[in-house]
Design a protein that fits this description.
This protein is mainly β. It is built from five helices and 18 strands.
Length: 402
């Protein structure tokens, strides 16, 4: 039923879009890095940031809220020539944590093919590449972009990207470093999905490369459809200095990794003041039985990584200020329904927790007070399958992008 729901949503996107004339325009989305890559300036500076307030609500208990300068990011882009460009993204999170989220060199062979190498965003779904706060509704990012495609997901690698204008197709294909699956302890489990496995280019190690790519079609006005994939193995420190003739050591190392095959489908569609988007992930994980046994704790309790993970959301919003000609503001009430299960299936003998099967409903307002500045409020209702009631959180905040 869940897969059927997603299929119907994507079909509705396509049917609605087909009513539009293909000659009316294209629907190409650009994040901050892509805007800089297309700039004629020698040096480009940009950034984004967001401040959040999260207040859990409970009928019986008084709970403190959380206030956070969630992130502040600076972009720098430099054009060495018309063909050679460099982009970097430096992020402060929670005031005190410093990360590099992107740092890559691009060589533009022609208008259809560019080569990239460095710290790259994994092109899965929507939010991992378009995570500036003005590009999505809701104070917080969708839940599936935390657990399954763990935004912001980036690794070191190289590959090609391009835009084939005659077919209205944009593509990316990269060979990248994989998740840290084992470095003395398990980094993947049922509760957190893949999130704790990100290496982020920070003194990362590699035991086998992974392949990722995405194709987007934008040839119909208002519509952008994406198909993304990720294939490979997790990484393990047990392969370091491994004697190739030691079969026992090799078997041990092999038990510390899992194979991953992930697919993502996404759609964005705009019709007048209406904004629709939907996203679906399915990840198949192999060798989980051996991995969960190998990474059991000191008391013999098995790890609980699922053998498949899945999640999706559908969202609709409408700009109620669309017909107010005297303003450039946008005010978008929206609603998003979301589901994910980080233990969609498990191997025999592995405990499956209903707490990892989650339904969420988020509804609120996004007020674009200026181009590049947004104020947001929403209510989020979250219910694990293990609970009979929805947990409620009120969220508010603002975001900027420049």
């Amino acid at each position: 039923m869940k897969h059927l729901t997603i299929s119907l949503v994507l079909i509705l996107f396509a049917i609605s879009a087909m009513s539009q004339n293909n000659d009316e325009g294209n629907s190409v989305y650009q994040n901050t890095a892509e805007i800089m890559l297309n700039s004629d300036n020698k040096l480009s500076i940009g950034g984004y940031g967001e401040v959040h307030y999260n207040q859990p609500l409970d009928a019986d208990l008084r709970k403190n809220g959380a206030l956070d300068v969630h992130r502040f990011v600076m972009f720098l882009g430099y054009n060495f020539s018309k063909k050679v460009q460099f982009i970097t993204e430096v992020e402060y999170e929670h005031v005190s944590e410093l990360y590099v989220e992107q740092a890559f060199l691009q060589y533009k062979l022609n208008q259809y093919i560019s080569f990239r190498g460095g710290l790259l965003l994994i092109p899965m779904g929507i939010v991992n590449e378009f995570h500036e706060p003005t590009t999505f509704n809701g104070v917080e990012r969708p839940l599936i972009d935390n657990k399954i495609s763990p935004s912001t997901w980036r690794e070191i690698g190289f590959g090609i990207s391009g835009n084939y204008l005659p077919a209205s197709v944009k593509y990316q294909l990269y060979l990248v470093n994989g998740f840290n699956g084992y470095d003395g302890a398990a980094r993947l489990n049922g509760k957190n999905g893949f999130r704790s496995g990100r290496q982020k280019g920070a003194e990362s190690y590699i035991s086998s490369p992974n392949l990722t790519g995405k194709v987007e079609y934008y040839g119909i006005r208002g519509l952008n459809l994406g198909l993304s994939a990720y294939i490979g193995n997790t990484q393990s420190t047990l392969y370091n200095n491994l004697d190739k003739s030691d079969n026992a050591a090799k078997a041990k190392a092999d038990s510390s990794v899992v194979g991953m095959s992930m697919i993502g489908l996404d759609g964005r569609y705009q019709l007048g003041g209406w904004h629709f988007r939907g996203q679906y992930y399915y990840a198949s994980i192999s060798n989980t039985l051996a991995y969960n046994h190998f990474t059991s704790d000191a008391n013999g309790n098995l790890n609980d990584l699922g053998s498949s993970l899945t999640g999706y959301y559908v969202e609709a919003g409408y700009n109620v200020l669309r017909f107010v000609k005297s303003t450039q503001h946008e005010l978008v009430p929206f609603i998003r329904y979301e589901f994910y299960d980080t233990q969609n299936s498990v191997e025999t003998g592995i405990a499956r927790s209903k707490a990892n099967e989650v339904t969420a409903l988020t509804t609120g307002l996004s007020w674009m007070v200026a181009k590049g500045a947004v104020v947001k409020v929403d209510m989020q209702f979250v219910k694990p399958a293990s609970s009979d009631t929805f947990g409620k959180v009120f969220n508010a905040g603002f975001g900027v992008m420049f």
